[in-house]
Amino acid sequence: MSNKFYITTAIDYVNGNPHIGHAFEKIFADVLARYHRDTGDNVFFLTGTDEHGVKNVKSAEAAGIPVREFTKKNSDKFKELAKTLNISNDFFIRTTDKEIHWPAVEKMWRVLDKAGDIYKKKYQGLYCVGHEAFVTRKDLTDGKCALHKKAPDMVEEENYFFRLSKYTPKIKEAVTSKKLRIVPDSSLNELMNLLEDGLEDVSFSRPSKDLKWGVPVPGDPSQTIYVWCDALVNYISAIGYGSEDSGSKTSNFNKFWPADLQVIGKDILRFHAAIWPGMLMSAGLALPKVLFAHGFISVGGEKISKSVGNVIDPFELIEKYARLGPSELIADAMRYYLLREIPSTRDGDFTIERFEERYNADLASGLGNFVSRVVTVGAKCISGEFDGAESEDVKRQIKKVWAEYREFVESFRFDEALQAVWGLISYGDKFVDSEKIWELAKSDPKRFQSDIFELCVILANVAKMLGPFLPRTSEKIFDQLGAKPSGDNWKFQLKKGEAMFPRIK
Ligand code: ME8
């Protein structure tokens, strides 16, 4: 029986265009979704957009477009990005979806209320629109939010609160016992500090007179549900909580919840490791198994920001290199850069220079060159289907790299997984050199064919490992090998294709 694997990403605000930080997170999760599919797991992979709240409303106003139209237009861009980057999500949730999402948010609210965890209170606080959250004086520098560089709004209002404080001990227990595993340790430590201080109750609604754009509080339309309470519910609304009979054995909710892995950026840890588990506990639902918080991407050493003018638009980046080949391979090149260059648990940087360097060194010279050394040379002298046998040394080498690769992928060390694959490529390159393959074609055709067979096996394994990382590249390699990834008793029929990853001059 196959295991289920439910994986989610954060859902993006649609206040602007997607940038490479958004792209990174979706690519990161896609590797794991594809890897688990390859191992035979029954995968459900969710991503989507977060469309309510003050931030989206303000951006729509600034653009002079009605908010519903504005969020739809931008949500479409995020959807399009997922397609362009070959993200293999099974569903794309939008929080404006009144059929699937809203009923779940309403149900969650009622359940929290019934548990006695919602109460009304007069409140005065500083609301940071960038955070979509109340902040405290210690989050400010010179009166401005240290992260968003804007002064928060002073808000005085009566609204509903969620009794998060009550769940501090239970959350602490879940985290320390690893029922809810927080990766990496830096995020775990950050959370433990928060828990040590004790969690505070959270404002869970805003008066509708100030914010109408959102889900009305059930039974009290004078209040709108807080955007984070609404957004976090996407992880269960998308699989049917509240909209299908979640009691039935066949429902996706019963099949897939709890999530096996939730991927988020480190900046939204508190919402996912404190508020979300608190809500789930109050509702009597299981906690996700693992929460993975990735690092942040800067561009040219600076935080990505419109005012700095360093926003890299993934669509433009792909367009810029269109002359190098089909856009799906450029998308793979982008996937490669982000996965190889940004260590998943730390921050990383993007520059065009570094992108081109990596492309030329690893994709044009490393991978592309190896493919052509094997396929072009082989196809010249061998026509039709052929098989053969690998030497013990080749078998051992491939087995060793698979073991490293699996360990690295399963511990989220994607840069190291790719290094292991490139190790196998250089092993193959050495094989070509030491055998002087190009001479053997004439001098010893029998040995030539058996060597080419072994090289094809090496390349097929490289392509198999690249499947989750560079899906289109992997397919194209299999096309040129005339083989299927599922094969183990390899047979090949070489077909020289377009040069993969021509050099950037
Ligand atoms: O936080 N590098 O939306 P968002 C890496 N709607 N990751 C980055 C990044 C960067 N430069 N910039 C953003 C939200 N991200 C909420 C989430 S989930 C129920 C609601 C990541 O559009 C960020 O960490 O600000 C987050 O995980 C995701 O992109 C969406 O960010």
TrEMBL record:
One of its GO terms (biological process) is methionyl-tRNA aminoacylation. Transmembrane segments: none annotated. GO terms for molecular function: ATP binding; methionine-tRNA ligase activity. Residues 137-374 form the Methionyl/Leucyl tRNA synthetase domain. It is an enzyme of class 6 (ligase). Keywords: Aminoacyl-tRNA synthetase, ATP-binding, Ligase, Nucleotide-binding, Protein biosynthesis. The keyword Aminoacyl-tRNA synthetase applies. Gene3D superfamilies: 2.170.220.10, HUPs, Isoleucyl-tRNA Synthetase, Domain 1. Residues 397-486 form the Methionyl/Valyl/Leucyl/Isoleucyl-tRNA synthetase anticodon-binding domain. SUPFAM superfamilies: Anticodon-binding domain of a subclass of class I aminoacyl-tRNA synthetases, Nucleotidylyl transferase. Its EC number is 6.1.1.10. CDD domains: Anticodon_Ia_Met, MetRS_core. InterPro entries: Anticodon_Met (IPR041872), M/V/L/I-tRNA-synth_anticd-bd (IPR013155), Met-tRNA_synth_2 (IPR023457), Methionyl/Leucyl_tRNA_Synth (IPR015413), MetRS_core (IPR033911), Rossmann-like_a/b/a_fold (IPR014729), tRNAsynth_Ia_anticodon-bd (IPR009080). Belongs to the class-I aminoacyl-tRNA synthetase family. This is methionine--tRNA ligase. It comes from Candidatus Spechtbacteria bacterium RIFCSPHIGHO2_01_FULL_43_30.
